[in-house]
Amino acid sequence: MATYEYRCPRHGAFEVRLRIGEASASVPCGTCGGQAARIYSAPGLAVTPRPLARALDRAARTAETPDVVTRIPGRRPARRR
Ligand SMILES: [Zn+2]
Questions:
Q1: What percent of the chain is modeled with pLDDT above 70?
Q2: Domain Putative regulatory protein FmdB zinc ribbon spans what residues (predicted)?
Q3: Domain boundaries, the chain
């Protein structure tokens, strides 16, 4: 047996105990009999939050090509006058 979470639009989340593999995408709500959609909360579905991913991405890019100093001072091609 496993516990699955479903959410009724009117009555909120509730748990249903079913045999593994028998959980359907929706079950009737125990209170109103309406369709309650399954909530997928498996730990494996967690992904890196987008802002964090963006920050890590930017940090990695900055390490490769710093955008503050783009050339060594004094190494600019000498301009003839
Ligand atoms: Zn309900």
A1: 68
A2: 1-41
A3: 1-65
